[in-house]
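Summary for the steering committee. One of the milestones for this cycle was to obtain a three-dimensional model of the protein with magnesium ion bound, which we needed before selecting residues for the alanine scan. The sequence and ligand used are listed below.
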Amino acid sequence: MDEHELAGQRKLFGTNGIRGVVGRDMNVSLALGIGCAIGTLFKGEIVIGTDSRTSNEMLKNAVISGLLSTGCDVRDVGLAPTPSVQYSVAKSDARAGVVITASHNPPEFNGIKVIDSDGTELYFTKELEIEKIYFSKRYAEMSWDNVGKLVRDHSANERYAAGIEKLVDANEISRAKLKVVIDCANGVGGLVTPKLMSDFGVHVITLNAQPHGSFPGHPSEPTPENLVDLMNKVVAEGASFGIALDGDADRAIFIDEDGGYVTGDKSFAILAGYLCSKHPGSTVVSTVATSDCVSDMVRKYGGRIVQTRVGSPVVARKMMELGAIFGGEENGGLIYGRHQYCRDAAMTSALMAQAVAERGAFGALLRELPVYYQAKLKTECPNDKKKAVLQALISECAGKKVDLTDGVKVFEGDNWVIVRPSGTEPIFRVFSQSRTEEGAVQLANAYLERLKRIISSIS
Ligand code: MG
């Protein structure tokens, strides 16, 4: 069984932990059982934190009860960005961490995300183990004298911010007299990033900085539609740039000084290039679906690029293995290896402030990037057909240059297209890149048609 099929065996965990609508498929009994299963698997001390959702205390306390019943000691760090909980786990003797979050999903959702002892997102093989324990109900239930102890930790976010401050040149940022507008989306990022930037001498203006479970400002996904106020505010204030955080503050999206939305592949390329220029010979890890603007910038500054399958846990693990300096994906989830091997919006924001301070302006960093266009399409395909469909497509591409790291990536001259079966949904995704917009659209359409033909021919 390959990794895709194995990952597809998970019944509860998806690409980002267990997610569901509260009161429907995400409830106290599930949280309690998952807490029992996590405790049974990991034993020892477990760190737990939450984002700002209305159901955070309800689900957190259920998970805590489950953990305590199995003899685990629990350290509750309260409201915290996901990377702050990860930092707490990595920098302590904790055996694992739990984050109650649904990241950027609508307010009715919540989720349970598990963190491994090294602070990285749990790999799907261990998620399968948790599910196995959960469905068998074989929990390590302790007697009265062996139940775990609960402590509250009120300084986790401060320690996390201090860890970031050590990794940038605060004096250099301060000398640049930057003005930055930060939109925290009423998530937990408001508890860390604005103060961190203020500590660097940045003039900070905030939007939606108060954590609030119904996300009154705007939905917590940092898309262009949701960031109109931020874009306008950056222009109105004459700010150096803008930062948008997602609900649990592991991803950061930037707005340039003209109010333009900067896509995640561009901020990734800017910082990858910047870090390679500071540390020549470094390794940067991206995925096979990442825009070539990232690899071009890494090579331009003497770095090495390594590409993995899609998914931040895969990228993080490859970074650890290679001692890579930087990595991530094009959704704004960027990983700075010298800090910790996880997506981190506050760390990313601090690095961007330093890059802008050093190079003079955000626009100058942006104009240096090569231009590529992408097109994304998808089509339905039953899960049990996926393997045969992919094999047929690979056979049809015989003679062409292909990369089979994740699905199939086909190179057509200077352009490429990647066709991947989703690990969680009955669909195939088609993603193309070209030097021209119409080139990208044509290529994606051509492979979508090809894929549809193959899917209907296999019965
Ligand atoms: Mg997130």
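Key point for the committee: The first strand starts at residue 13 and ends at 14.
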